[in-house]
Design brief:
single chain; alpha+beta; 5-stranded antiparallel beta sheet; two-stranded antiparallel ribbon; 7 helices; binds iron/sulfur cluster
C-alpha cells in the first residue's frame, strides 16, 4: 500500500463509520454525465464513500416513505456532501486535484442523470454489487447505504477492511415481493425504472415528503445475514 493510500484510509476511518473504496476509474469515466461539461483529464481516481442508514427508521416504512425516513435521507446526504467536501479540501491541501461530486443532484433533467453514477463507481471499485433492486448492495449493510464520490488525480487504492468479497444477490429475492409496482425482477438489466420513477413521483406528493424517495426495497435489503429475510 502506498503512503497516499494509507493516508486516505486513516483519514476516512477517523471521519466515521463509512464504507469506502478507492482506485482507478479510467475505464468508466467516459460514462460520467459531467464529462460533457467538465474536462476530467487527469482525474483518473475516485474515492467512493457509503454511509449506513439507521435501521430503526427504515423499519417504520411499510407501504410508503415516512417523514423520519425523509429526514434521515436528507441528513445522510448532507453528511456525505460535507465529508466529500472535507476530503476534497484535504486532497488539495496535499497538492492534489479533487472534485466532490454531489451525493444527490440531477445534472441532466431530461435524461434524469446525475454528474455520475455513484453506484457505477462503487461497483467498479468493488464496494458492492448491483442488486436486483438496481441499487448498490454491500455485504455489510445491504442496500441500506447512501453514497458519494470524490474524483482526484492522487493515485489512491484500497477499501474498508473485509469488503473485497463481492457475492451478488444469490438466491435472495426479498425486495422483489415488496415493490408496490413490480419494478424488481431478476437483476438490474430488467429493472422497471419507469414504473419505479412514477411511483416515487407519487410519493413525492405526500404531504411533508416533497422528495422522490420510497425506501420500501431498501428496507427489505439489510445486508449481512439478512439476505433472504421475509419482510
Ligand atoms: S433484497 Fe436481496 S435480491 Fe434484493 S437487492 Fe437486496 S440482496 Fe438483492
Ligand atoms: S424504490 Fe420503491 S418503487 Fe422503486 S423499485 Fe424500490 S420498492 Fe419499487
Amino acid at each position: 500500500m502506498t503512503e497516499d493510500s494509507r493516508w486516505l484510509g486513516d483519514w476516512l476511518r477517523a471521519e466515521g463509520p463509512f464504507l469506502f473504496a478507492a482506485g482507478d476509474i479510467t475505464g468508466i469515466k467516459h460514462d460520467f454525465c459531467m464529462a460533457r461539461f467538465h474536462d476530467l483529464a487527469g482525474l483518473d481516481y475516485a474515492v467512493v464513500l457509503a454511509y449506513p442508514l439507521v435501521r430503526e427508521v427504515l423499519e417504520e416504512i411499510e407501504d410508503q416513505p415516512t417523514l423520519l425516513y425523509k429526514h434521515l435521507y436528507r441528513q445522510v446526504n448532507n453528511l456525505l456532501d460535507r465529508t466529500a467536501l472535507k476530503l476534497a479540501l484535504a486532497l488539495e491541501g496535499r497538492g492534489s486535484r479533487a472534485i466532490p461530486v454531489p451525493a444527490s443532484q440531477l445534472l441532466d433533467w431530461k435524461e434524469l442523470l446525475a454528474h455520475l453514477s455513484h453506484r457505477q463507481v462503487a461497483v467498479h471499485l468493488k464496494l458492492g454489487w448491483f442488486g436486483r433492486n438496481n441499487l448498490l448492495v454491500t455485504r455489510r449493510h445491504g442496500a441500506q447505504v447512501r453514497l458519494v464520490t470524490v474524483l482526484t488525480d492522487l493515485p489512491v487504492a484500497g477499501s474498508s477492511a473485509g469488503l473485497e468479497e463481492v457475492t451478488g444477490c444469490g438466491e435472495c429475492r426479498a425486495c422483489v415481493a415488496v415493490c408496490p409496482v413490480n419494478a424488481i425482477h431478476e437483476g438490474p438489466q430488467d429493472f422497471g425504472r419507469p414504473a419505479c420513477f412514477e411511483k416515487v413521483k407519487q410519493f413525492e406528493r405526500i404531504q411533508g415528503i416533497g422528495q422522490r424517495i420510497c425506501g420500501i426495497c431498501i428496507r427489505a435489503c439489510p445486508g449481512q445475514g439478512g439476505f433472504g429475510r421475509q419482510v
